[in-house]
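4.2 Preliminary Data

To establish feasibility before requesting continued support, the project team ran the inverse folding procedure on a target of 153 residues. The structure was first converted into the token representation described in Section 3, and no sequence information of any kind was made available to the design step. The complete token record follows.
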């Protein structure tokens, strides 16, 4: 069980106190997501499991989303206009980053497709189905030329 001080520090880290802290949160969210997803994408085809691919992706998205959500909350509720502006910009930066990261990684779609032949839990099967649908909606199932045409729209 985590120590209460550790949990308190983790919660405090989600709520920056100044614009520099906001930028640090943005940077750490991007770096952590890229590192976690790099580990997922580095797995070879036969190594993929629900735990090391699907749940790892879900967890990475969740941690990233927590940081983005904290910025969104600050942008709406802070009494300091500079904090609201910085948090809004940080939230926008993270939103754009996520869209670009996902669209720039068709290998994520391939990694998820490999799980179709793996026995998954009920929730895992549902999450995989929804994830593949989302990725297909973004065009990640298409070849590079078709993705480029889609991106031009």
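Position-by-position output of the design step:
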């Amino acid at each position: 069980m985590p120590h209460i001080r550790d949990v308190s520090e983790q919660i405090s880290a989600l709520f920056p106190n100044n614009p520099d802290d906001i930028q640090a949160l943005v940077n750490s969210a991007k770096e952590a997501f890229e590192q976690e997803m790099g580990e997922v994408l580095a797995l070879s085809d036969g190594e993929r499991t629900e735990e090391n691919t699907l749940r790892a992706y879900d967890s990475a998205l969740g941690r990233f989303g927590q940081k983005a959500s904290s910025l969104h909350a600050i942008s709406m509720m802070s009494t300091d206009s500079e904090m609201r502006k910085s948090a809004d910009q940080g939230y926008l930066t993270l939103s754009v980053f996520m869209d670009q990261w996902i669209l720039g990684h068709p290998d994520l779609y391939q990694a998820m497709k490999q799980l179709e032949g793996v026995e998954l839990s009920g929730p895992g099967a549902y999450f995989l189905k929804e994830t593949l649908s989302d990725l297909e909606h973004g065009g990640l199932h298409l070849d590079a030329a078709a993705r480029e045409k889609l991106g031009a729209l």
